[in-house]
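Human: Can I borrow your eye for a moment on a structure tokenisation matter? Separate attempts, laid side by side, tell us more than any discussion would. Could you pick a protein and write out its sequence and tokenised fold? No explanation is needed for now; the record alone will do.

Assistant:
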Amino acid sequence: MSSVHVSRVIAARPQEVYDFAADPEHLGAWASGLAEGSVRTEGDHLVVDSPMGEVVVEFAPRNEHGILDHDVTLPSGERVRNHMRVLPHPDGAEVVFTLRQGAMSDEEFARDRAAVEADLDQLKGLLETTF
């Protein structure tokens, strides 16, 4: 199984990046690959209108380590674990998302990577103009 680490350095403090990215109300503003419509809380998870249909998202509990891992349950019932970190960087923070190919074709994997890159670019743009 192939993996790639997609990252962006953001000129903002790591805690600011973490707090913004971890806030469900901000998902639609930067994570269009995951949230393109409404986001609502149901218990410990989020129900999100996504490009894939309605999905359930469960983030790791808030923590001091910058861990934003999240499980996404797709409309098919398949559950996908996504690893995401906010790390300190000399120029602010670095957001790292690990993308795994799994059963995706090379073309699907390339599209998924492009979507993650676009989302991280959007997150960077929002945070660098906000903070």
Q: What stands out?
A: DSSP finds three helices and seven strands in the chain.
